[in-house]
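Incident log, structure service

09:12 report received: a user says their structure output differs between two submissions of the same chain.
09:20 pulled the input from the user's history:
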Amino acid sequence: MNTGAHPNAPAPRANIALARDCDECRGWGSVVNDGRYQLCPFCQDLST
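09:34 re-ran on a clean worker, output below:
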């Protein structure tokens, strides 16, 4: 069984205003985890 987003689904966009002072992502708003870009769990609101 496959799980996760559809391969053609648009990637989530990082809020740069939230990422500006983040030390984890260095202001990018995203991090690489297991070879995939993901929103930074420290500065991005993942509840939306």
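09:41 both user submissions now match this output. Likely a transient worker issue. Closing.
09:42 reviewer note: The radius of gyration is 12 Å. The beta strands are 30-33, 36-39.
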